[in-house]
C-alpha cells in the first residue's frame, strides 16, 4: 500500500467535516414520511429544495477551503476546472429522501485527473459515514471495510440501479441474467450507497447501465481500497458524463461480468 500524500489526506479530513455539516443541513430540511415535497425533473427523477441548498453549501465551503481545486455538482455543473476535481452529489437517493425514507446520502468525491483518490459518503439517517483515501484504505464509521467473501452466485445479493435513462427491455435483460445466476436482485434507490455496500460486503455486486459521475465519484476509491472489482467507468465515458458500472466482490466479479455482458477493468 503506497502512502497517501499529505495534501490528499488533508483534503479528505476537510471533506469529511464539510459533508458532515451538509448532512446536518439535509437532516434539518428532511420531509416527514410520505412527502411529497419534490418536483419532477423527468419520469421518476426528483428534485427537492434540499438538493440545491446542500450543493450550494458544499460549493461555498470548498471554494473557501480549496479555491485552486476544480468543482462539479449534480445541480450546478462544472463551477471550476483543475487537476484535482471535487464531484458532489448533494443528495443521492433523492426519491427516498423526498418520501421521508432513510436510504439517502451526501456524497463528495475527489479525482486527480482521471484517477479517483478520495471519497466521503455520509448517510445521516442511517448514522453511517464512509471514507476512503487512495493507498490508505476504506472505512465505515472509522472501521476498515472489505468486499464480501461470497463465492457462490447462488448465495449472492446483487443490486441493480434504475433510472429513466435506460429502456425497460435493457433493464429487464440484465435483471434476468442476475436471476439466472441464482442471485437475489435488489434495488435501493441510491447508487452511491449501493456501491458503498459492495465495498463493505453488504452486497456482492452492483450494476447500473447508465449512471452519472456524481453518483459514483466518492464510491470509486472506496471500492478500490476495499478490494472490489469494477468496470472501467471513468474510461468508458464516466469522467465527462455518464457510463455503465459494474462493481462486485472479487470472487464473483468475473461470473457476474460475463452473465450481464459488462466487462471489468
Ligand atoms: C439516482 C440514484 C439511483 C440511481 C440513479 C441516480 P439521485 O440519483 O442514485 O439509485 O439508480 O441513476 O440518478 O437522483 O437520487 O441523485
Ligand atoms: Ca445521485
From TrEMBL:
GO-annotated biological processes: inositol metabolic process; phosphatidylinositol phosphate biosynthetic process; signal transduction
Metal-binding recorded as keyword? yes
Which cofactor does this sequence's record say it needs? Mg(2+)
Chain residues that bind Mg(2+): 74, 89, 91-92, 215
What keywords appear on the UniProt entry?
Hydrolase, Magnesium, Metal-binding
Q: Does the keyword Chloroplast apply?
A: no
* Pfam entry (one): Inositol_P
Q: Which InterPro entries does the annotation name?
A: Inositol_monoP_metal-BS, Inositol_monophosphatase-like, Inositol_monophosphatase_CS
Q: Which domain of life is it from?
A: Bacteria
**A GO molecular function held by the record:** metal ion binding
**Cited PANTHER family:** INOSITOL MONOPHOSPHATASE, INOSITOL-1-MONOPHOSPHATASE-RELATED
State the family it belongs to: Belongs to the inositol monophosphatase superfamily.
Q: What is this protein called?
A: Inositol monophosphatase
